[in-house]
Amino acid sequence: MIENYALSSKGLYQILKAKNVEYLYHANTVLTAKTFIQQRCLLSRHQVESDKLLQSPQKSDPEDKKYDVWDAIFLDGADLHVKYSQPNFYGPVLFKIKLDMLISPSFEKVYVTKSNPMYWSDHTKIEDKYYGTLDQFKVDYLTTTKLDSQIMFTFRTPLRELKLNKFLHSIEIDEPKILLKLKSGGEMEAGKYVRSAIEEEMAKYGLSHIPLETKQHNLLSKCSCAFGYTYLYNTNYLEFKRRFTRQPEN
Fold this sequence. Notes:
alpha+beta, 4-stranded mixed beta sheet, 11 helices
């Protein structure tokens, strides 16, 4: 039973604090991020679909539906762009969530994955999908025994409780300098295109007091994101467009 793998959010909070984790993170596309801002909360993909709102398709959607994580919000304990020095696969808009959300009465239970559900199969046992105890998680997380990006914090049937006005610390955006051709006939850097879209929605929906920051790199970071975005644009434009487009396809 999945309920046997529900871990205490307060217990998780104590472990993450001891491991110097400051925030939880959720990266997504521009289109899906706009929906979250408009709704003033993070939503599961099931909730967005049920409410007939807009979101970008994800490669993992079939597996998420099949393996019963479609109605879950996924958060990471690290900024994967920084951790792996490359663009985040899920999108250029990063929501930085206050760790204190874990001690809110709205989030008493958390299901921590041992691997990304997109890699699960019909033969994957539930004990290989989720951590059964906080002690097991503590042994693995940030200790190099497991790939940390595979360990995700999931909140099932979360409704609209992860409110941005309450739990969002800031939003960080990638700002690649790739020129995009606009429908109006002009051109704009992809990064400025993202910033203007997110700024506009934050102002419209009463969230302009929340910091909107640009992903910063120092000279020692050796981040390959500029190369990664340029390569993606030139070799897989449809994927680049999926991450950056503001509007759904007609």
